[in-house]
Amino acid sequence: MSAPVAGQVGPSSRSARRSRTLLLAGAAALATVDLILKAVTSARLTDGTTVDLGPLTLQLHHNTGVAFSLGAALPSWVIIAATGAIIAGLIWYLLVAAPTLTGLARTGATLMLGGAIGNFLDRLDGGGVVDYLHTGWFPTFNLADVFVTTGVGLLILGTLLAPRPQDISAE
């Protein structure tokens, strides 16, 4: 078997690049869907209209803070800078880790990143994040929040259920 030539792309580097590309493309697609839904909701519910969907009500709300409106009194640039730094670190970590994650964990990472990016981009106009899913017993939220929450759960579950490396020194 010949040694790999410098600069040559081997199967493992192709697989790593594919994992990273799918993560970023999936996150971009999810963020796009989220932003489209926020635009449609903003256009349709601006006048205070609500839509009853049974357990959920569509109702327009702008959240200038982060989760559960924490930090709502802070200047928008502080929230934008802080969330931008967190997302930059998250992207770096996930791009490094993506090739080693299980499929379930990688799906979770994609959901989490897509939701985070969707909310971040929505926040850039200084008006906060558009929330529209209202339960009556829980703070109003949006699809990006669902992506983030579901993604974190799948990332943790996929990590916990990952096969453990075998200790080859014990043989």
From TrEMBL:
CC annotations in GO: plasma membrane
Superkingdom of the organism of origin: Bacteria
Gene: lspA
Topology term for the membrane: Multi-pass membrane protein
Protein name per the record: Lipoprotein signal peptidase
Organism: Kocuria turfanensis
Keyword Transit peptide: no
PANTHER family (UniProt xref): LIPOPROTEIN SIGNAL PEPTIDASE (PTHR33695)
Active-site residues, Swiss-Prot/TrEMBL: D131, D145
Native organism taxonomy: Bacteria, Bacillati, Actinomycetota, Actinomycetes, Micrococcales
